[in-house]
Amino acid sequence: MPPVSPGLRWTALCVIACAAMGGAIAVFAQPSSTAPLTDIKGLYDASCASCHGVDGRGSGPASVALAPAPRDFTRGIYKFRSTASGSLPADEDLYRAIARGLPGTSMLAWKGILTDAQIRGLAAYVKQFSPRFATETPTQLTASQPIPPTPESLDKGKAAYESLACGACHGDAGTGEGAITSSLQDDWGHQIHAATLTEPWTFRGGGTATDIYRRLRTGINGTPMPAFADTAKDQDLWHVANYIASLGRKPVWKMDAAQVKALYEQRDQAAAANPVARGRVLSETLGCAHCHSPVDAQDRVLPGMKFAGGLKMRLVVWGDFVTANLTSDNETGLGRASDDDLTRAITHGIKRDGSRMLPFPMGWPGYAHLTPADLNAVIAFLRTIPPVKNQIPPPARPAFFAYLSAKFQMLIGGTDFPIVVFAGNAGSAGADAPGAARPAQQ
Amino acid sequence: MKRFLKWTLAVVVVLAAVGFVAFLYFIPPLTQMAPEEFIQQAGAMPPAATNISDPAERAIAERGRYLVLTADCGGCHTTQGAQGPEPAYYLAGGMTFATNTHGTVVSRNLTPDPETGTGSKSPDDVKRVLRSGVFPDGRGAPPLAMPWPGTSNWSDEDLHAVVTYLRSLKPIHHAIPAPKAGRGDAIVPGAAEVAYSLDAGKK
After folding, report:
1. For residue A69, what is the domain's CATH number?
2. Over the stretch A10-48, which tens digit does the pLDDT of each residue have?
3. pLDDT tens, A232-261?
4. Which 267-296 residues of chain A touch chain B by CB within 8 A?
5. Which residues of chain A neighbour B186 with C-beta distances below 8 Å?
6. For residues A213-223, b (16+ Cβ closer than 10 Å) or e, as one string?
7. Per the CB < 8 Å rule, is A107 touching B132?
8. Residues B45/B87, Cβ–Cβ less than 8 Å
9. Assembly ipTM
10. I need a labelling partner for A118 at 20 to 30 A (CA). Which of A10, A91, A139, A348 fits?
11. Are A175 and A212 contained in the same domain?
């Protein structure tokens, strides 16, 4: 190597350093815009698969608690389209769902997080999960001119809302009250509920009259929501869309204090009137099934074992604990527990045999602050969980020396006690029980 | 005499060893408080949203407080000290979770501190984590450690209440380390997750 002057060497070093930093910034600042589109599968697996599954079946690790359930791409049935009932979605519909998300659901708006090219790449990628896209083409519907929401149009819309029997599922006032909401299912057997028409910010395809008109014409594939493009007069659909748009109430973030109070009181009344529905929501948001279901090594709940307990946790000093079976099975679940038993366990951490639970991971000190109505709702919901037989072993103390060594560590090392959560089912569910193919390790 | 001393010493040493083992064995691994005390402690940690002057916003924040308290967000997001959760660091984060699926993650600082908490994030950024488990940079939150599939069932209005309450908290400076790829150094065979309560943050 020929001798170089120190100045030149420094300059060269600076150039290299700057280039390296520039490269690093380019890589770290905007990883999404520079990622090659050829790796769209990698992007799908990283961003979409935790809900939709690597195989596109809508059963990723997070899917079990999500309502509505994530889309199963393999059947090519899409809910929010601009195309005729039963038809495939247009590319633009898929783009729109990914870019703008589906309000009121866990499907977020990816625009701003992913680039346009990536979103289009994903839209193309999900199509290949279903063979339908190879053989069929979407039938686009064209919209007529909007009709302005005059009082006359709203009156006609209300009349058409009644004659088309919208209230059967959505309720006469659009709130779901008095409707058959609790028995609705989609084509996958998931329990679903009709949209609450007074909350337009939760409309998946948008809350404007134009969006609603489109939904009325296309229907929602895979659900009981029919398409009215061929069965109702086009004008009437605009009137109904105007009427539904007029039902929208203010969201809580736009209310004044009196309105907020009235809303919360009304909520409490609705919850008291239907404790099971309220309890279902609470059980999901409190995350009961989160620990009270066994999972595999990918954090997926073992099929059919939601709420059946059996997740083993090792609290290093205290020993091994297996989460309780919350299903209503008489022998192994809560079937024979009284309401008082459940209240004591949920709010005071006291089991039926009188023994106490630790204040974590079961967060009973927090659950103790549930209102009586909410607590009753949770219990009412737990009673509705169909029985699954899964005998849960009693807690096991750690071995003598492990116990002493953990105590010694506790004495000198502060509070760092790992809680180990084991994949698999530590309950008894036999070879015929769902999910029993993966035995608990350790 | 020498012999007597030797024996005394031996007995003392043996007794001390047995005593130490017994001490280790019998000291309670957890301060044994009555359930009511734990309940009182849990209820006392989240402050009331009295610093919000607008009555509508305060009512919404109080609803958010109820949701945050009963969903036990503090169980993982409150900094742990030698005697359990530190009330002065309520929701300031710092617990470590070594997961099978998402590397080693540390519970985030949920207080609105602009540097180390959620202060520089938009309400939508926080809602997106609770609803969809996706951080502002597109990274996913681990669904076992952070039960976002559960919180995704909060309605938009309840999510708004939760975020309103979190914004009303006093900002606490507590820097949380970034997640690390890989399963973590101490994951146990067969484990899906290992949670460490020792504070990994920097006060």
Report:
1. 1.10.760.10
2. 444 444 444 444 444 433 333 444 444 568 999 999 899
3. 999 999 999 999 999 999 999 999 999 999
4. 281, 284-287, 289-290, 295
5. 418
6. bbbbbbbbbbb
7. yes
8. yes
9. 0.89
10. A139
11. yes
